Amino acid sequence: MSTDLSRLSLNTATTKRASLAEAVDAAAAAGLGAVGPWRDRVQEVGVEKAARIIRDAGLRVSSLCRGGFLTTSDDDAAAVALDDNRRAIREAATLGTHELILVVGGLDAASAPGAGARPYPAGRGDDPARDLVATRRRAADRIGELAPYAAEHGVRLVLEPLHPLFAADRAVISTLGQALDLAAPFDPDVVGVVVDTYHVWWDPDLHAQIARAGAEGRLAAYQVCDWVLPLAAEPLNSRGHVGDGYVDFATITRWVAEAGYTGDVEVEIFHEDVWARPPAQTVATLADRYTRHVLPYL
Amino acid sequence: MSTDLSRLSLNTATTKRASLAEAVDAAAAAGLGAVGPWRDRVQEVGVEKAARIIRDAGLRVSSLCRGGFLTTSDDDAAAVALDDNRRAIREAATLGTHELILVVGGLDAASAPGAGARPYPAGRGDDPARDLVATRRRAADRIGELAPYAAEHGVRLVLEPLHPLFAADRAVISTLGQALDLAAPFDPDVVGVVVDTYHVWWDPDLHAQIARAGAEGRLAAYQVCDWVLPLAAEPLNSRGHVGDGYVDFATITRWVAEAGYTGDVEVEIFHEDVWARPPAQTVATLADRYTRHVLPYL
């Protein structure tokens, strides 16, 4: 059995309590080929230094997580969100990665991710803050506003469909097919998609849409982690190690490979139990799971 | 503003702690036109008597909840499941409803709904118990086995797509489009679909698939309740009163009406706070919400 970890990437959310340097050390020591940093870990050391830390360890940057949250109907808030996304594009360019993951954001009615819904306007039975169709249209418009800037910087906006569990408060992009429809007007080198098993494993159209993403040249990243039950009290942090849950990694990985994907495989896990472990132990576990459940099918 | 409740139906799961007679009384007293009983409430009084209780109150039976859970790969377990579904078909016929809701069931790897996943077979990186494609094929086969029996009894198998949150442990039918694809080989009078807002509100293809369901004559039931956050500890019981969450009832109800649906609107809520109230209070709340958020768009 191959134990080649050169395509395995540690997403820094998986070792949430570690600094960038600590995460990079753990990944490099275990023989991984790449890391996928989150912006918080990059910004706390500064983007130039972050790039150096990763480069000096001999690792690639598989992607930068994340831009997005740009669906608001408020013009001022939208301007702030677009500015922040332009900054994320510059950060990705400086880090030397082509792939900037975007989580587009939710409904105006979502006061904060995971919290309750805003009440309806007085005396109204309908509510523009719950208009999912219009919110998705705004997501499309904002992607269009960012695309030229991303292209100038040699960075691709990578649309992430999130599990429909998060459609209200985190991402109105819920399927890979929808992400590809939104990407369609743009050059494949400027707007792509990511397959994150946690978010898309259930989709009856997944095989066809992964093939389509490959054929269109938009398959920008492959992230793996497992769907475990029962959900954690904070469902966002229910993502489990590969092999602990229900996802059929053999099948989905085959589909990704057949679609021509030759990039890194990022492990991105949000889970309190995983975060409580030392980074070296977490990396050892994810390398073991990758070797058993993903690599043979890649 | 109209307050005509003749198309409003109380699903007995909404008043979980009430007997069938108590639920029927509450619905009739408030002027509702129908109830949608669950099988437990029917079986505890006997199906003939249940039919009489509902008829004597002057109410229709909008649907019977529910058959299904027939995706197992174990032949003996499948035979038991099919027997139980045949019984559900007979119960629906006796109750005088044409619509039997089916929740098809989950993966073999789901030891019990909401509980953890079975481990992988020793030494294996893949696992047939996690094969979603094969599980969906079995669901199709079992629907085919039940269809003639349903047709003989004048009952329609109504496929319910469940929110992808439940794809592992409760239903491998996750979208309305997938449900319609599974229904396609059968007479529309024998296999139909239900639109339950909780399960499908997030679907980017919802408008098109509701229109398709109407055009094909398969739109058998419309169930409403709201997607509320944060999720309850048991996510199944996170369903809220219409208007308490994020669902755009005005838009979805318009789509259902435009698709030609003229049947009952069932309110099916699973929530501990709702169950703690007296049935009359729950029915008053759902009538108020229906009048404000659903009826004007129907």
TrEMBL record, chains A, B:
Classification via InterPro entries: IolE/XylAMocC-like (IPR050312), Xyl_isomerase-like_sf (IPR036237), Xyl_isomerase-like_TIM-brl (IPR013022)
UniProt keyword terms in alphabetical order: Carbohydrate metabolism, Isomerase
One Pfam family, short name: AP_endonuc_2
Positions of the Xylose isomerase-like TIM barrel domain: 24-281
GO molecular function (one): isomerase activity
Protein name (Swiss-Prot/TrEMBL): Xylose isomerase domain protein TIM barrel
